[in-house]
Amino acid sequence: MLGEMELVFIILLVTTICFAIPKFRSDLVSLCSLLALFLTGVITVPEALAGFSSTVVVMLAVLFIVGEGISQTGLAAKAGNLLVRLTGNSEFKLLLFVQLLVAILGSFISNTGTVAILMPVVVSLSMKLNIHPGKLLMPLAFGASMGGTLTLIGTAPNLLARDALINHGFDGLSFFDFTPVGLVILFTGIVYMWFVGRKLLDKPPYEGKSRVADTINVSELLRQYRIDENLHYVQVPAGHAIAGKTLKELMWPSKHNITVLKIRKKATPKTLSFLSGTGFTQTLAEPGYMLEAEDILLLYADTAPLQEFLKDVGLESISRDLVEGLHIQDENIAEVILTPQSNLINQSLKDIHFRDKYGLTVLSIKPRNRSAKLPSVQDQFQYGDAILVYGKWKDLDLLAKEKSDLVVICRETTDPETAFKPIRAVLSGAVLLLMIVMLVFEWVPAVITILIAGLLMILTRSVRSTDQAYRAVNWNIVILIACMLPMATALENTGGVAFMADGITSALGGAGPIAVMAGLYVMTSIFGVFISNTATAVLFLPVAVLAAGEVGVSPLPFVMAVTYAASMSFSTPVSTPPNAMVMVAGKYSFLDYMKVGIPLQLIVGIVIMLVLPLVFPF
To answer: How many CB atoms lie within 10 A of CB 202?
Structure first.
């Protein structure tokens, strides 16, 4: 019969496997793991729910609100615009400033949010310098992860490390305790990416360079997504039954899988000739538009449904040569990607009512490592999908500001950015500075400091409303941590932590504390390749504390080794959210991450092993 410790390890193994399968949401996996531990009698109800009252969980949730305030006031976007002024035409400066800026921002706000803010800026600058975005986006993601090692609030494992030490009766970590080693890591990463990583990511200049220096050529997007072959034209004959009906009444998308994108109609006598330019006007198709005789419609459809539609409705297609100037406008199209925690994943267009929610039409979906295809209302979005959308400028602008589910990475016009509000930006910056000062001097407990900062972000209207503050919280990560903390409790209660610590110290203890620390680092790094850095830190931080006690040294260097190892996962796109976010925009393969990330992970690991004992003696 299985003992409790063996049962916990089986649940942990199944949980780890499920974490490694992209199809399963990590928050739901952790919740199932929590329920499995309780239902098997390993933990009690108070132990199962203890994670939800953890100070780490509370601090992390509120830090998302603080980051939202920095973003909403335009302060973060202003920082991103420094790239435009400082880089000039130098690829070296661009690479350097990209990594420095994302690291600085990532040390104070969510690294996922930082990448979402800066990714469109980096893509735009790549076009301006005629550099493939793939040469810069992976350094951007790696820089965000390295920036998280600079401060206490940089990433969740840092907060967990502080909590682990306090829970075991040791002094906690201060705000800048992470900074010395973090700066060495960042310097190592920048040097590696310039001399080695950049060459391993050597991609041809971007072919779609636009006539506008800092924008992408829409014709290139249309080619990549195979849009042109699905554009067709029809004219409404005089006296036809569809004249006088609205597009909503006709229900062509649901009945025939036909989408009307644009309409050309004769200019009315009220329209001044110098305004129309010709005898025609053009308008984007909207559900309430009423068709009139002689209107020319720009349709988007596959050939087979089109032929059936034309036969059923009694229309004929006309040659595009006969249609003057009716085409997709540059400002009405954009390429977007799903964020790793997007709520749209595993949802279909029909499920989320995409058109009603965003006011935009999905022209094409390009799944990861596959060709673009026309969307179906039944097709479910998967992580890694790139999507081409079409609609009004104001709707695209709103979509560009909403970075929780989708990130706009390419569009013809200047990248929309959050409007800069000088007074509120100053206030949000002051709140951030106050929070840092209070955390450094520890006037009140850290969790209270962060709660004060979150409240001030709302009271100063840096975050537009309380509802917006709640929406800013990445509940997936909050639930993940709250549900994984009881796993650490279960391992400790059943002797699992002691078993792992004994195994490491028995195998490596004879070689000295550095060997044990290196063993912890390697094990954490291996787990971090397959599961989130947060879950990895939850599992190995108690092991680090116990292993230090068995060896008879300070737990601080062991704890820091686990913390840094959890954050330094570069070798796969699923290792960290920033890695996953840039995969589609940079057109990376899984091999690209291994080729660039594994050497960097090894080099950074060696550097950490050399520096850690100097900063945190045994």
So the answer is: 9
DSSP symbol at 286: -
Q: Which two structure tokens, joined as six digits, stand for 69?
A: 């305030």
Please write the tens of the pLDDT for every residue from 146-189: 998 999 888 888 988 998 899 888 888 888 899 999 999 999 99
Helix (H, G, I), strand (E, B) or coil at 152: coil
* 3-class DSSP assignment, residue 245: coil
Cα(71)–Cα(277) distance, integer angstroms: 42
- The 10s digit of each residue's pLDDT in 517-565 is 999 999 888 887 777 777 788 888 988 998 998 888 999 999 999 999 9
Residues in the chain: 618
Three-class secondary structure assignment of 385-421: CEEEEEECHHHHHHHHHCCCCEEEEEECCCCCCCCCC
Cβ-defined contacts of 497-501 (< 8 Å, 24+): 497/542, 497/543, 497/546, 498/546, 499/5, 500/543, 501/543, 501/546, 501/547, 501/550
Give the span between the Cα atoms of 556 and 616, in whole angstroms.
7
Residue 6 has pLDDT above 90, yes or no: no
Whole-number average pLDDT of the chain: 81
**Around Cβ 308, how many Cβ atoms within 10 Å?**
14
Residue whose C-alpha is closest to residue 298's, from 325, 335, 338: 325
d(CA 548, CA 505): 9
The CA distances from residue 250 to 282, 288, 306, in Å, are 20, 11, 15
Q: Give the residues across from 361 on adjacent strands.
A: 390
| 267 vs 604, higher pLDDT | 604
Report the C-alpha gap between 13 and 33 in whole angstroms.
10
Structure tokens at 57: 């969980």
Phi, then psi, of 174 in degrees rounded to 5: -90, 175
Angle between helices 496-508 and 475-494 (to 10 degrees): 80
Question: Phi then psi for 406, rounded to 5 degrees?
Answer: -135, 145
Q: Measured between alpha carbons, how far is residue 17 from residues 6, 293, 477 in Å? A: 17, 61, 18
